[in-house]
Amino acid sequence: MDDPPKPPPLAEANRFGMLDSMRGLAAFSVMLTHFYASTYKYTFLEVLPEWVVVLIDRYLIYGVDVFFVLSGFVMAFVLSRRPIDAPLFGNFLLRRTARIGPPYWATIILALVYWKLSNVVFTWRQVPMPSFPEIAANVFFVQEILSLPHVLGVFWTLCIEMQFYLVFGLLVWAESRFRLLDPSSPRTHGWCAVHLGLVALSLAIHTGWLPLRPAMAPWFITFWYSFAAGAFTFRYLTRSIPRWSYWAMLGLLTAATALTYANSVFVSTGSALFILFAGERGRLGRWLCHPALLYLGAISYSLYLVHSLVGPPVMNLSTRLGDSLAVAVGAFLVAILIAIGVSDLMYRLIERPATRLSHWLKPTPKPSVPPPVIEPIEPVEPPIEYPPAA
């Protein structure tokens, strides 16, 4: 007897601890590069080995690309659970906003309050306050599109993320509506070719093959290749796309890396391959699952939001103690600890309740009521009447 077919590697998975740890490491790497590039960069340059400087300057800053890959993987997972119609698509966008909005808006308020107090206390050094239109644009994640300044520089990725959710949700709705990922339909191959065309266009814009980068920088297409790498990886692991389409996508990413030496594309490709390698071996819930890394993953979103607000003041104040290596290292470590502490508070007070709200908004699946079973009715024979006895 033939063995039953092997199920896809993620058929039973509903939690990916490794991805949480990767998200935490990505947020931590972005924080390190921002703190390193602040007040004491030249002090560190005098003592750090060259390979460490290259690692920080060329690769760690691209932790945001890891975010995009993870986001694509997770969104493909979330939207794979049931067919998407218009109401479910709207609910998906509402839940994503409820999940990422409150910590983001709280960071805006925290920044405005901090700058206002700073201007009152330090009257000789005034921080320019954003205008009302700038604040409103930031609140609705459209400042990048409107060419208005970000309240905090790290907010640009949230503008791109919101566009990812909208575009990918529409693509998944089209797939559900027209059965474009039906394995038995030849349209599946054509639809995957459309996705590959979007990836190729994104790479052409991002790497400069098409001279559209300045005009398209605020739009999702510039970074779509990274989000698609994560989404394709999930769909390949769950066997919901043809094998050729996934390897074609990786071929596009590899070619772009080799021809342009784009570190961001290299990081995205490496992240997708690492997830693929772990997923094929059923290790997404085991690798990198040390409690410290999982904790860092839990607070990663809050850490990404607030680190650029709380870290630079610590680094700037420490310059009054001098610019020696001991002062630089001490300020660096204190800034990291304060950023993690504030992030922990943000996570417990705002982000975790926002996650609960997002789960509460999730629609309850309608119970499938089986059709009533009609039992066959046996024909009733008329009683036999016997003649009366003589």
In words, what does this structure look like?
- With 390 residues, the protein is mainly α.
- It is built from 15 helices and no strands.
- The protein has helices at 17-36, 41-45, 50-58, 63-78, 86-121, 132-139, 156-178, 187-206, 213-216, 224-237, 243-260, 263-280, 291-298, 300-318, 325-360.
- Helix 5 (86-121) runs antiparallel to helix 7 (156-178), helix 5 (86-121) runs antiparallel to helix 15 and helix 8 packs parallel to helix 11 (243-260).
- It is globular.
- The model is unreliable at 1-7 and 367-384 (pLDDT under 50).
Q: How many helices does DSSP assign?
A: 15
SS content category: mainly alpha
The string of secondary-structure elements, in order, is HHHHHHHHHHHHHHH
Radius of gyration: 27 Å
Low-confidence stretches: 1-7, 367-384
Percentage of residues in helical conformation? 55-70%
For the terminal residues, how far apart are their CA atoms? 72 Å
Largest sheet: none
User: Got a strand count?
Assistant: 0
The global form is globular
Strand content: under 5%
Mean pLDDT: 86
